[in-house]
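Bug #77: duplicate submission created two jobs. Keeping one. Sequence:
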Amino acid sequence: MSEQFTHFDEAGRAIMVDVGGKAETEREATARVRVVMRPETLAMIRGGTASKGDVLGTARLAGIMGAKRTADLIPLCHPLPITSVRVELTPEGEDSVEISATVKTTGRTGVEMEALTAASVTALTVYDMCKAVDRGMRIEGLRVVAKSGGKSGTFRQD
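Kept job's structure:
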């Protein structure tokens, strides 16, 4: 294991960080994002009348699948043995869906990227399934709101 974690080798080339010498610990991360839409679009989602089917159920499944594919999507991201992915979609007010994705593993590196990927893919799926009726939807505020485990400890953002 190198003394310093870096994505660059001695010649300045991009590399995957060597985490081989780190201890395996239980790790968890939660990411959130919001999809803002017209009130009519949210009513369609709530009513289950979208022409493409169950928006919330399909988006939830897509987010779980996205978390599992993070290392294929993000360069230099370690493939991790994910032990749990939970994606929640909550209609908020009259015009948005709040998405929360929590990912867990026991490993040598954190799951923040997996949580962010799950939340992103979920939001993109909501957009994809509703874009024919609402091209003005916005995906806003993607962020990690909590993480635990590993050397850097616990982080929480309200």
